[in-house]
Every structure is written in C-alpha cells, then in structure tokens.
Amino acid sequence: MDRIRITGGQKLSGIIPISGAKNAALPLMIASLLTPETLTLENMPRLADVRQLNRILSNHGVDHAVDGKRPGDAPHTGETVHFSARNIVDTTAPYELVSKMRASFWVLAPLLARMGEAKVSLPGGCAIGTRPVDFLLMALERLGAQIKIENGYVIASAAKGLVGGVIDFPKITVGGTHTALMAAVMARGDTMILNAACEPEVVDLANCLIAMGARIRGAGTPVIEVEGVTSLHGARHAVLPDRIETGTYAMAVAMTGGDVLLEGARADLLGSALEMIAESGSDISIEDNGVRIRSHGGDIEPVDVSTDPFPGFPTDLQAQFMALMTRANGVSHITETIFENRFMHVQELARLGAKIRLDGDTAIIEGQPQLTGAPVMATDLRASVSLVIAGLAAKGDTTVHRVYHLDRGFERLEEKLGACGAQIERVSDPG
Ligand code: UD1
Q1: Nearest C-alpha to atom 15 of ligand 1 is from which residue?
Q2: Residue 128 — very low, low, confident or very high, per pLDDT cuts 50/70/90?
Q3: Catalytic residue status for 208
C-alpha cells in the first residue's frame, strides 16, 4: 500500500495548477444518463473516484471515450471525456460498486427519470458520520416515485413518469439538490426546490443541464424552479475548478510560508474560506489567471470558524484549517455543523504535537510554535490532506499511510507540491 513521505520545513513557491472539481465532475458524469446523445465534459480531473464512477456508469451501458492530447495542451490539462448513454442496459447499481463511493447513489434519479425504474444499493463512502439518504428519497417521492427498501437496495419506480411538485428540504443537502434537479428536468410540469443547496457544484450541474436543454431558474439560490421538458440532448460543458483543492493548497502555503499562484482557481467559489485564511495572516490576491497566496509561515493568527453550507466555510476544508490553526499564536475554535463525526484527524494531528481538545461539535486548538514529524494514518479524504499539510510545516519526517484516500480526490498531489519546493514523495511497498 502506498505511503507519502514528507520532510517538513520547506517554504512553497511557484505555480500549482488547480484541477477540475471532483464534486462537480461526479454529478455531471451521472447527468449523462439523462440523454441518449453524447455529453462531453472538459477539464475532467484524473481521480480514483472518477474512475470508480466510470465503472458504475459502464455497468448501466454508458460508453466513455477520452480525447488524446491536442497541440498546445499543457502537460496536465484536464481531460476531455465523451459520455454516451445511448442504450441503458441495466437499471441496477449493485452493492459491490456503490458501496465504494457515496456519490454513485445519485444515479438513482436519472435512471428513474429516463427509464421509469431503478434499483440502487444504499451507499457507503467516507467514514465521517452517518450519512442518510432520506431527503434524497423524499425528493423523488414528491415527484411521484414509489420507493421501497429491500435487502439493502432502494427500489424506485415511476411507471407513468415523474410529475413536477414541490420539494422542501428540511436541511440543506448537496446530494439532495443534485437528485431533485436530475429528477425534475424531465418530469411532467413544474418543480420548485426549496431550501436548495447553493454550492457552486449545484450551479455547475444546473448549467450543464441547461446546455442539455433543461429549463432551470435560480440555481445558486435557495429556490430553484424547473420546468420539465420531454427529453434532453447532448452538450459540451467544462467542469469548474476545484475549490477544495484551491483552499487546501492555500492553507498549505499559509502554514509553511511562501508565495504560490493557484493557477485557474476562482476566488468567488471559495465562499468565506479565503477570508478566513487572510484573517489568519496570509496575503491573498486575485490575479488574471488565478489566486495568489503569500505568507511568512510564522505569525499565524488564531481564527474561529464554523462550517456551514455555501457560502459559509466548507466542511471539506475543516480538517485543513485545523491543521493551520495548530501553529497559530493562540487558541482557536472550530465548530463542525454539517457532519457529526468529522474530527477523526484530531488524534492524528496530536501525533504531530498538536494540542486539540474536543467539546461536542467544537474543537479547541491551542496553537504550538512547532509541530514535529511522525507516522500518521489517514482516515478520510479531507483528513488525509490535512495531515499532509501539517507534515509539510512540521520539523522532521512525516509518513502518511493509507494514501488511497488522497488519490480519491487530489490529482498528482505530491507532484504539484514537489514542484513548489516541498520534500514529498510517494513510497510503494514492494509486492
Ligand atoms: C457533498 C459532498 C461532500 C461535502 C458535502 C457537504 C460530493 C460528492 N460530496 O456530500 O464532499 O462534504 O456535500 O458540503 O459532492 N443528510 C441527511 N439526509 C439526506 C442527505 C443528507 O440527513 O438524505 C445530511 C447529511 O448527513 C449531512 C447534511 O445533510 O449532515 C449535508 O449532507 P449533503 O449536503 O447531502 O452531503 P453530500 O451531498 O453527501
């Protein structure tokens, strides 16, 4: 199993290209199920989660083809991938595939919308707390689906097609909003989605669906209106840049010190996260081709944050911000409001010398002048990368085990950081 070995203490300087967003790419790929024509996605990231979803979509009969390199392409530009769901051959998504990645559960909505039936295993995913799907099923029921759960599978049907309706989410849910959108676009009549998630990835999905012929208004606000159409057609759409990757590298620079251009990053996608990094003492500027961050690496101010739906501070950056705060000049508080069990990085950060106490949904971090390297174990995707950035700032060697979590969501992590001066390498065990 691969490990990442880091010798901390190097400042980062140079350019880090930001990849297409994993959390946008996944629902966009799933939207290809809605049309027999080809959906072409540009700026696709090369990630384990994308490959896993390709396997799941292939099982339903979706073909995908990747464009070769074109003259003038930078060495690692995102891929252009053509998805074609001409014939859906299977409306079942089996446990063996869905249990590996939670987002694959979202195939339920487009399969149901297009085929009138779907059978999808209840999902697995990151170990960050119970992650139910009750709101997703409620959304489909509001549009006329019949749903039953049998032997770990959700069996959904709508023999006469889905019908527009009002979906009022009791809590903001990104996956619920994706599900509602993909179900509503071809339902008969109008749908109102209330308390919708405003995350940029929802807007990206809505924009792609609009390019495919859907009629959607209000994506990016809490009220989305959808006017159903009878069919969707092919389209070409570019995946938006990854805001979580952007925030992660910005926090790495804030912690180690240095001067890095996050190429292709969009500040408007970061919500309050960039403000919080700036408050902690880094200089952030918006350039023509991305976001630039400069930091001394010392004098990190303690900043209190609470995770919230967009445009609040993203839960997917909570672990990384905690890593940054372990080196602050004082005490900070980080409150997690989205997932109840998302503090598994705390004990691993403690192995590097961090002083963190948990009080319910709040972590109290007493900043230390110096962390020291240690072997650590990644427990989920974002927790793993928080250990990487803490290792970059720690004195001595850190080894991060269970790197497969990182490969799910960070493209060429060690290459991107290494190109900016980090001493970081991937070590593969023989055999
Ligand atoms: C997505 C993101 C994930 C991010 C999360 C919150 C992808 C692939 N994943 O996950 O990286 O951390 O948004 O920004 O885009 N909930 C229910 N019932 C439901 C659905 C959700 O109770 O049916 C709860 C969840 O347990 C959680 C909250 O609602 O407490 C928000 O979850 P949600 O926004 O749905 O997260 P995901 O879409 O799974």
Answers
A1: 23
A2: very low
A3: no
Cβ neighbours of residue 74 closer than 8 Å, sequence gap 6 or more:
17
Q: Which of 74-83, 355-364, 371-380 has the highest mean pLDDT?
A: 355-364
Closest CA to 114 of 82, 156, 153: 156
- Atom from ligand 1 closest to the CA of residue 339: 30
Please choose from 26, 101, 182, 338 the residue to mutate so as to test ligand 1's pocket, defined by most ligand atoms within 8 A of CB: 338
CA distances from 255 to 265, 278, 282, 369, 373 (A): 19, 12, 9, 11, 15
Query: So what's the pLDDT on residue 176?
Result: 98
Q: In this structure, how many other beta carbons lie within 10 angstroms of the beta carbon of residue 273? A: 27
What CA–CA distance (Å, rounded) separates 101 from 80? Answer: 23
Domains identified in the chain and CATH numbers: 3-19+241-427 (3.65.10.10), 22-236 (3.65.10.10)
Q: What lines the ligand 1 site, CB under 6 Å?
A: 23, 26, 102-103, 131-136, 171, 173-176, 201, 315-316, 338-339
- For the CA of 201, the nearest atom of ligand 1: 15
* Dihedral sign computed on CA atoms, order 384, 386, 389, 394: negative
**Is residue 147 scored above 50 in pLDDT?**
yes
Between 99 and 13, where is the model more confident?
13
C-alpha 173 to ligand 1 mean position (Å)? 5
pLDDT digits (tens, 9 = 90+) for 20-29: 999 999 999 9
The per-residue pLDDT for 304 is 98
Distance from residue 306's CA to the centre of ligand 1 (Å): 16
Rounded Cα distance between 376 and 90, Å, is 42
Q: How far is the CA of 315 from the centre of ligand 1 (A)?
A: 10
Q: How confident is the model at residue 125 (pLDDT cuts 50, 70, 90)?
A: very low
